[in-house]
Amino acid sequence: MNVKSCVFSGCVIEDEVEMSLAELSQACCVTAEWLIALVEEGILEPLVDERHWRFGGASVYRARAVQRLQRDLGVNVAGAALALELLAEIDTLRMRLAVLESGGSEVS
Question: Structural domain tally of the chain?
Fold first, then answer.
């Protein structure tokens, strides 16, 4: 019997974590200029802390999602913004559907 094993490594970034533009750039292996383009398009929303941008853990997820959309589908930044918005809407609709299917009456 031939068994292959794989070892993955990574780190979990919580939503409460805040990082600078340079730290986010390093975490996503992208340039600061690329991240600034995401901010200008509204994909990333930095917190302003004493004239410096700070980003939450969700920014890593969103930036990496844009990377995948650009790499796999060849979309531009505006297209990635639309895709992320639509994916969020799908998630919301799925949650509402799950509540309705479970017999719950609280749908917002």
Answer: 1
